[in-house]
């Protein structure tokens, strides 16, 4: 699955994903999301709408949350991209992942990588202290299963521990 | 029959353990359908119609076919005819006769067999290319000429064409019922309520878009499909393509939410198999978000007339509930709105009925609590109106008409804790703080409203099978072709098996979602635990029995000669109850017996207990809303649900699922509405920015409480299922709270400010309440 098209023009793209460099020949229309999922087999980042409406594809670009479905792969070059697969360090879960597990912050798990990536980014954002602030800051990440209350609890738990 | 460990203290069933598949989900390692890597995989994108009714005159695929990367464009012009459908048509198949209707395809699908168009957004062609980008682009190049006909789109104008539904509902319930003498009951009433309630079309919108990958190997096909029903998909593929079911394997390990939409094999599923066969390579179709409005079902529009009559003391003397719902021109699909009404209140005179209206829209389907979610909005709103008309507390009114036995069948309940749900819920919610007069409660600038409603859902159960395999290393494998939709199936089945056998839950591996595993029903209708859970419990118990038998009959075992009942298995170690130090592990026992695993299969099915008892889960839901008096915006400030759902296998996942149900109900009450353009049948808000579902900011803190309920009859594990009940009653509770806050009764969902505000301005500050179209206390 190295080349995107058998007949079309492919462009060389160099992406830095989770600290590793990946070189791909891609159809220039390829989004970062499809580059991850279809070409790099990093399927932890989810596609829920492909239109920037659901947050399932949230990844970090240079530490900030971005929607991978609204980012062309070619435009992601030169940025340090972090996906859910790269969130833990040395085989350890990120505290946010553990909190999602303990607070049962998910059901089907499909929105979950996006929720976790948003939640981790939120830790470095100027988000107010209350549950309502977190709800506001997380409203770009939809969860149709409706695990919202547990997601907020998980995030607040981590915030209390890392930002006392 | 009760589980031996049901009351045990050491068991893991009933404890809030973390999900056993949680690690996979939080690390991104859980693999959903579209993520299965296959060599040579092609991508296909559906082209859909842009008219709602008519005939395709011409499809021009030349530009698409010339487009880079395109392998094939399938249209009605070049798609091979399916023998199965031709035979069905020859034999007079008309597409009527319930949702299945004896069709080889199950649902009425769009498989390019003819050129008819019956709704806007119907699949009419498929572009197969070597990349998603190439297929998407080429799909936009397909040009279609139609001979358009005038479609029927709007429910309101089509209502005169409504016709009674005459088949069994869900294959078992009568379409209409009558008990006692309704006219006499109405005549005897001091107070009457007679109102129409409407609910709009809605769409499930699970976060994972439907996806299918099909790969052929000779005359065998494997489908990875985001489905709630692997055996159902296998049957549909086999029948549609006229191949033996054994040649079809369907796999569905993780489903990214479903809520009913993934319960049927829709057009794209069969198209993927057809396309892969055509091009001789594996093909993947991911339905786009827009295509999830129409081709994969949704909740139909309903118009429900509810008539209630009661004497001054609140005793119901008459109850009538007539529901008309929309279906497509392709199928008769019924939203079973009145079933809950038949069993909820002890009213001697009652009539219920279902009718249908055919529209040129996508065929509706089961959507979370189909029938109950919609039906209870009408009934429980009407009960609130009656409570106001009687100047009676709404809980007191419900208790006054409490059904001690199933009022329709006369059968006793297998268990029912609704009284406790009302009382306990009211207590925890602080219902006594409610002053009943509309607009009488405020906080700051906001109007405050309290509302409540009853929740109920039947305890469904179907035949299911499972295999339990105790391995020589002391681990256990459970195999059952059920599904993980986010409902916690992997987790609760592992818990059941762990307790039945006596090993730690970490040593249980559960395998689901594969037709190579024992047959199980669709994971829907809140029946996975009752059906599959029962089978797993029985299979695990049988394997345990065999293990114990092996030990007591083995002269080398420390348990030799013990009576069967004396043997206890804790943490994978078999001991004699009275003499715990003497014992051995599963590993040592099996090692002496050639290291062969112990495997037992169980087939579980409901028995005649279903003839003896009426089986339903019940609950009560309470909400507080805040309404801005200047703007008419509604916010749910808190919600609380109390439920009697039998045995709760895992309070952590159960609570989450019920909160999810309540959240779904908030969406139904306040935002969800699939809008269709009346001129051309186009789905106007076919994406998840315009089709509003609750987001973080819409969902307050939600409390879920379980009444401790023992049900010895419902199934071997005493559980009733919880997938749907959380969403039932919520819309009515919110509508009732909005009335309490504002004095405005909104009978048409969703409760948006365009419906609320004009009436509210009539009510505002000093103007007299008589202007109200609703029944308030009139103060
Ligand atoms: S897939 Fe990117 S926001 Fe939905
Ligand atoms: S866990 Fe299913 S969508 Fe969030």
What's this entry about, in short?
Chain A is α+β, with helices and mostly antiparallel strands and 164 residues long. Chain A has five helices and five strands, in the order E-E-H-E-E-E-H-H-H-H.
Structure description:
The complex is a heterodimer of chains A (164) and B (779). With 164 residues, chain A is an alpha+beta fold. Chain A is built from five helices and five strands. Chain A has a five-stranded mixed beta sheet, sandwiched between helices. In chain A, a hairpin with a 2-residue loop joins strand 1 and strand 2. In chain A, helix 2 crosses helix 5. Chain B has 779 residues and is an alpha+beta fold. Chain B has four domains: 167 residues, Aldehyde Oxidoreductase, domain 4 (2-Layer Sandwich); 201 residues, Aldehyde oxidase/xanthine dehydrogenase, molybdopterin binding domain (Aldehyde Oxidoreductase, domain 4); 108 residues, 2-Layer Sandwich (Aldehyde Oxidoreductase, domain 4); 249 residues, Aldehyde Oxidoreductase, domain 4 (2-Layer Sandwich), CATH 3.30.365.10. In chain B, 25% of the residues lie in helices and 23% in strands. Chain B has 19 helices and 28 strands. Chain B is globular, with a radius of gyration of 28 Å. The N terminus and C terminus of chain B are likely disordered. The interface between A and B is large, with 66 and 68 residues. One FE2/S2 (inorganic) cluster (FES) binds next to loops of chain A.
């Amino acid at each position: 699955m190295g080349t995107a098209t058998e007949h079309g023009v492919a462009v060389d793209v160099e992406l830095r994903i989770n600290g590793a460099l990946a070189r791909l020949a891609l159809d220039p229309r390829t989004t970062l999301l499809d580059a991850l999922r279809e070409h790099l087999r990093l399927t932890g980042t989810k596609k829920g709408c492909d239109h920037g409406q659901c947050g399932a594809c949230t990844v970090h670009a240079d530490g900030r949350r971005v929607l991978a479905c609204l980012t062309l792969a070619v435009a992601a070059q030169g940025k340090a991209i972090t996906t859910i697969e790269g969130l833990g360090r040395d085989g350890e879960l990120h505290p946010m992942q553990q909190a999602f597990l303990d607070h049962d912050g998910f059901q089907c798990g499909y929105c979950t990588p996006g929720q976790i990536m948003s939640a981790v980014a939120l830790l470095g954002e100027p988000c107010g202290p209350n549950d309502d602030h977190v709800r506001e800051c997380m409203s770009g990440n939809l969860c149709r299963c409706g695990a919202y209350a547990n997601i907020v609890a998980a995030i607040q738990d981590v915030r209390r521990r890392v930002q006392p | 029959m009760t589980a031996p460990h049901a009351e045990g203290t050491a068991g893991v069933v009933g404890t809030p353990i973390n999900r056993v598949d949680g690690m996979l989900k939080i690390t991104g390692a859980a693999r959903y359908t579209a993520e299965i890597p296959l060599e040579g995989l092609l991508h296909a994108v559906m082209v859909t119609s842009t008219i709602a009714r008519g005939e395709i005159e011409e499809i021009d695929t030349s530009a698409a076919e010339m487009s880079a990367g395109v392998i094939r464009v399938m249209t009605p012009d070049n798609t091979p005819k399916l023998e199965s459908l031709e035979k069905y048509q020859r034999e007079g198949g008309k597409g009527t006769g319930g949702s299945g209707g004896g069709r080889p395809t199950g649902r009425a699908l769009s498989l390019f067999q003819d050129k008819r168009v019956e709704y806007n957004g119907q699949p009419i062609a498929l572009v197969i290319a070597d990349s998603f980008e190439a297929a998407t682009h080429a799909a936009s190049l397909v040009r279609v000429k139609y001979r358009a006909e005038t479609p029927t789109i709007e429910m309101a104008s089509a209502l005169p064409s409504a016709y009674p539904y005459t088949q069994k509902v869900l294959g078992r319930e009568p379409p209409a019922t009558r008990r006692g003498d309704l006219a006499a009951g109405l005549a005897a009433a001091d107070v009457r309520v007679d109102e129409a309630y409407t609910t709009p079309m809605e769409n499930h919108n699970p976060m994972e878009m439907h996806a299918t990958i099909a790969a052929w190997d000779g005359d065998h096909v494997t489908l990875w499909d985001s489905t709630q029903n692997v055996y159902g998909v296998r049957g549909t593929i086999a029948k549609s393509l006229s191949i033996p079911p054994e040649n079809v394997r369907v796999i569905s390990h993780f489903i990214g939410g479903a809520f009913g939409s993934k319960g049927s094999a829709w057009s794209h599923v069969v198209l993927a198999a057809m396309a892969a066969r055509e091009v001789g390579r594996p093909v993947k179709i991911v339905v786009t978000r827009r295509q999830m409005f129409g081709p994969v079902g949704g909740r139909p529009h309903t118009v429900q007339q509810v008539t209630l009559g009661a004497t001054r003391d609140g005793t119901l003397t008459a109850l009538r509930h007539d529901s008309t719902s929309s279906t497509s021109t392709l199928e008769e699909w019924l939203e079973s709105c009145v079933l809950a009404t038949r069993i909820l209140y002890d009213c001697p005179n009652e009539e219920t009925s279902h009718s249908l209206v055919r529209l040129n829209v996508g065929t509706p389907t089961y959507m979370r609590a189909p029938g109950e979610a919609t039906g209870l909005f009408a009934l429980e709103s009407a009960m609130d109106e009656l409570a106001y008309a009687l100047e009676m507390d709404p809980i007191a009114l419900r208790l006054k008409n409490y059904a001690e036995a199933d009022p329709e069948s006369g059968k006793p309940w297998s268990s029912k804790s609704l009284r406790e749900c009302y009382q306990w819920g009211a207590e925890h919610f602080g219902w006594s703080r409610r002053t009943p007069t509309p607009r009488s409660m405020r906080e700051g600038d906001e109007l405050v409203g309290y509302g409540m409603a009853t929740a109920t859902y039947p305890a469904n159960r179907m035949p299911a099978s499972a295999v339990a395999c105790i391995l020589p290393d002391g681990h256990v494998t459970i195999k059952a072709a059920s599904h993980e939709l986010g409902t916690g199936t992997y987790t609760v089945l592992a818990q059941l098996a762990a307790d039945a056998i006596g090993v730690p839950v970490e040593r249980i591996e559960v395998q689901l979602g594969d037709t190579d595993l024992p047959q199980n029903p669709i994971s829907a209708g809140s029946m996975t635990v009752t059906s599959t859970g029962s089978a797993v419990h029985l299979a695990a118990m049988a394997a345990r029995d065999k293990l114990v038998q092996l030990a007591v009959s083995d002269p080398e075992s420390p348990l030799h000669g013990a009576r069967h009942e004396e043997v206890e298995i804790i943490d994978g170690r078999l001991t004699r109850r009275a003499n715990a130090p003497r014992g051995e592990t599963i590993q040592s026992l099996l090692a002496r017996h050639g290291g062969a695993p112990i495997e037992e299969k169980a087939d579980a099915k409901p028995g005649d207990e279903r003839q003896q008892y009426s089986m339903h889960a019940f609950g009560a839901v309470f909400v507080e809303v805040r309404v801005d008096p200047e703007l008419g915006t509604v916010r749910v400030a808190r919600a609380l649900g109390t439920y009697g759902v039998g045995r709760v296998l895992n309070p952590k996942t159960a609570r989450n699922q019920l909160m999810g149900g309540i959240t779904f109900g908030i969406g139904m009450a306040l935002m969800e509405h699939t809008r269709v353009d009346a001129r051309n049948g186009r789905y106007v808000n076919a994406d998840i920015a315009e089709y509003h579902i609750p987001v973080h900011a819409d969902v307050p803190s939600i409390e879920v409480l379980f009444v401790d309920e023992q049900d010895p009859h419902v199934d071997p594990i005493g559980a009733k299922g919880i997938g749907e009940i959380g969403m039932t009653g919520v819309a009515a509770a919110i509508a009732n709270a909005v009335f309490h806050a504002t004095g405005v009764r909104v009978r048409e969902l969703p409760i948006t400010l365009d419906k609320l505000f004009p009436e509210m301005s009539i009510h505002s500050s000093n103007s007299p309440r008589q202007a109200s179209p609703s029944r308030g206390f009139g103060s």
